Amino acid sequence: MRHFDVVVVGAGPSGGHCARQLAKSGKKVLLAEQHQTFAQNDFSSAATPIETLERYNLPSDVVGSLWQKIVIVTTNIHQSWECDEPLGAVLNFAKLREFLAQEVQRQGSEVWMGHRYIQSAQESGKTIVEFKPYGNSETVKVSTQVLVDATGQIRAVMCPPKQQHLLYLTGTGTEYLIEVGSSDYQKYAEKLTFLLGNKWRPKGYSWIFPMEPNLLRVGSIQWNRPHKIVEKTSSLRTYIELILKDYLQDIPYKVVNVHGGVFKYCSGLQDTYYRNNTIAIGDAVSTVNMLGGEGIRHGMQSAEIACRYIEGYLSGKQVDFSSYQQEMHQTYKKAWDWSERMGISKYLEYSDQFIDRGVTYLNQLSTDEILQFIFEYNFNPIYRRFLPYLRYKLSGKIHNLIGQVRSGFTNINILKGVD
Ligand SMILES: Cc1cc2nc3c(=O)[nH]c(=O)nc-3n(C[C@H](O)[C@H](O)[C@H](O)COP(=O)(O)OP(=O)(O)OC[C@H]3O[C@@H](n4cnc5c(N)ncnc54)[C@H](O)[C@@H]3O)c2cc1C
Known about the structure:
alpha/beta, seven-stranded mixed β-sheet, globular, eight-stranded mixed β-sheet
């Protein structure tokens, strides 16, 4: 039986980056992925801020396009923010994961495509991991010192489906990759367009991202919970077709492919982060952010945090991964809890008028502040701007209340006959 220092299950951005980092530091790593190619599950829209490229040392050929403008459209409002410099990228998700896997191989470690994780067990002080190779009835077993669950929202290692009792907030996303003429492409190039509100996507949002010359990503996501006000919604495809017809104004297009995926976010980050020598990273521990559905760079960041603890464990400095869970909570919990609360209000509670009004107020934010809000989950600029307004509203309410109490007293006194 082959032995590895670390076996990483799942070659998404988190697993690929984790295996890449560990292989780079001289560990003998196996990265195993159930799909045979990265084109098979090319599900993510892969928009990210510009810092991601340098922070994770990503080459230009994983970049589909760059963007420097953000547009938010609601049922009645249209707002935009822009900059002269690129603010972010839309990555080619298949190429990104292929690049990470190649890096693992380049460092002398192994990548097994078409290998589905089946189970693992402890045997004489080692962990034995069993895979089912695609098209083969025989399973393959390897042994490892550390096992990493990087299987995304499936959580195949840490939390097999039958054991998933936690409170998950699930969402479903579908996206059309469409080919359009170059003059039509130019209208949507270099910008991320988000469409909110009842017309475009109740219980979620829709988007148009420039993928690469003449290719646009048009997608829609909905959270699978009842809305406080909206009773009935249509299928994801209905909203995408509406965008193609009404927002893109029936421009000629060809659908290149239709893909999608599921978000499964554990409310309050109560996922299992580790068990014995098994550790979970990325979407397997809800690093995807509930507010915008962005998860690539957060998954890669969790991989870097995990790598430090895995190195410590392999060298005997670390006896378990409890400090990993602590650091993950320190890194994400506060912002993720806020994002969850804000996401639930925005997608599952607010009326259309409230969303319109909210986006109108966002217009007071600078481009930098809107980026901080959308990508850094920094809500301070919003509170700073709206605090005077809230104070004004509150003082009006208090004034009314005092007036009502005073007139109540006057009425009582009149009834009592007191002057
Ligand atoms: C429609 C949609 C649009 C999105 N858009 C964006 C966006 O614009 N920007 C952004 O940053 N994020 C976006 N996300 C979120 C982002 O794609 C995820 O957060 C990110 O991919 C998580 O990375 P991961 O490596 O943790 O998991 P994943 O990318 O899900 O990777 C997990 C891997 O594990 C493999 N696997 C699962 N089970 C097994 C098994 N039993 N054996 C072997 N392999 C297995 C899977 O095949 C997969 O390759 C989007 C998600 C969806 C669904």
